[in-house]
Amino acid sequence: MLDHHVYAKTYFDPEGYLLAIDENESTSRPLGFVHAGFAVNESHSDLNRKIGIICQLKVVPGEKSKEVAHQLMKLALDYLSRRGVKEIHAATCFPHAPFYAGLYGGSRIPGVLSEDADFVESLKAFAFEEFDRIGVYQRELFGFKPYMDRIQRVLTQKYQINAIADPLERNWWESCTLGLAEREQFTVCPKAGSTDSVCGHVLYWDMQPLANHWGVNARGLYDLSVNQDSRGRGLATFLVGQSLKYLMQQGIGLVEAQTPISDQAAVGVFKKLEFDEVARGILMKKKA
After folding, report:
1. Angle, to 10 degrees, between the axis of helix 235-249 and the axis of helix 264-272?
2. What's the pTM?
3. How far apart are CA 254 and CA 82, in angstroms?
């Protein structure tokens, strides 16, 4: 799994992957690791090496765990500093998540999970500051029915949903991070128009291996967008609701979505569709 989700990435740099090992004459015991990497540029065509990322920090619980975490974090920050980064983020969130999709956080990387106490404590010790939080929401699909009110009924008459199985990757970054995952895309467009007049889209992926570990056929919502001139009409609720209905009919039992809690429009969509908040992630950063 680490080969698939970490080491096999074309941009993986072994020098940014640091291990703490307790060695004596007869044994070697791992104590923890930290992984530092980089964000993606605006066109999603290459890394943005001005923004560094502490992708993961994990230590084995014990009396020396805080000391180990401190030394690992120091080495990771030194690595990023030597490569000239101007700003450093912790774990980050979509789309700036080069590693660990499917291993940590769920449908996307939600920054650092608030329950990940050692990671959060280490970041605060190195002057990382919180700038937002990510809500992690889940919806069981058994018996799901889309949200319906007068506005949604009108949209049902005027718009249609188009499903695309295994869509082509849209850019280099999506190919690197999710290219091997099973994915579904749904678009919304006017019934009187064509698929060329797309007003918005939503994409889901099969969250492996996390979904398999949960024992349910699950999908992660990783990108939801409605065109600027089509917003404020209820189209996001319509698009997500109809796509969830389709996924339920295909045997999907659970969908997870994430959004910054500062994005009240997106939070409102998930609440209307009766998603439950199951966790929170913390977005933190600092100047290099």
Report:
1. 40
2. 0.91
3. 43
Query: What 3-state class would DSSP assign to 113?
Result: strand
Residues 199, 187: Cα–Cα separation, whole Å: 7
Amino acid identity, position 147: Y
* CA–CA distance, 120 with 138 (Å, rounded to integer): 23
Alpha carbons 125 and 248: distance in angstroms, whole number: 45
Helix ranges (H only) for the chain are 2, 65-82, 117-125, 150-158, 172-178, 210-214, 235-249, 264-272
Phi and psi at 77, nearest 5°, equal -65, -35
Strands 47-59 and 28-40: antiparallel
Whole-number Å distance between alpha carbons of 98 and 79: 17
- Please state the φ and ψ torsions of residue 61, each to the nearest 5 degrees: -55, 140
List, for residues 32-91, the tens digit of each pLDDT value: 999 999 999 999 999 999 999 999 999 999 888 999 999 999 999 999 999 999 999 998
182 residue type, one letter: E
